[in-house]
């Protein structure tokens, strides 16, 4: 794995944070944690949908 400079690392983490804020699980997907990303996305979307159904 190639090493990143501090500036590139900070920019990458900023992008990961923005992705996670826009789409649940997208930050983990950018970090190449596919399984965790799917679990987070499904949990948040299902919780939201159940809330709409109940409310």
How would you characterize this protein structure?
This protein has one domain. It is elongated, with a radius of gyration of 15 Å. The chain has 55 residues and is mainly α. The termini are far apart. The protein contains three helices and no strands.
Characteristics:
55 residues; mainly alpha; 0% strand
Helical coverage, percent range: over 70%
- Strand residue percentage: under 5%
List the helices and strands in order.
Answer: HHH
The best one-word shape is elongated
Structural class: mainly alpha
| Tally of DSSP β-strands | 0
In terms of topology, how is this protein built?
Layout: H1 6-22, H2 26-30, H3 34-54
Explain briefly what this protein structure is.
This protein is an all-alpha fold and 55 residues long. The chain has helices at residues 6-22, 26-30, 34-54.
């Amino acid at each position: 794995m190639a090493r990143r400079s501090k500036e590139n690392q900070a920019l990458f983490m900023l992008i990961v944070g923005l992705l996670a804020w826009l789409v649940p699980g997208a930050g983990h997907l950018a970090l190449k944690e596919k399984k965790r990303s799917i679990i987070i996305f499904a949990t948040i979307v299902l919780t939201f949908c159940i809330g709409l159904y109940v409310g």
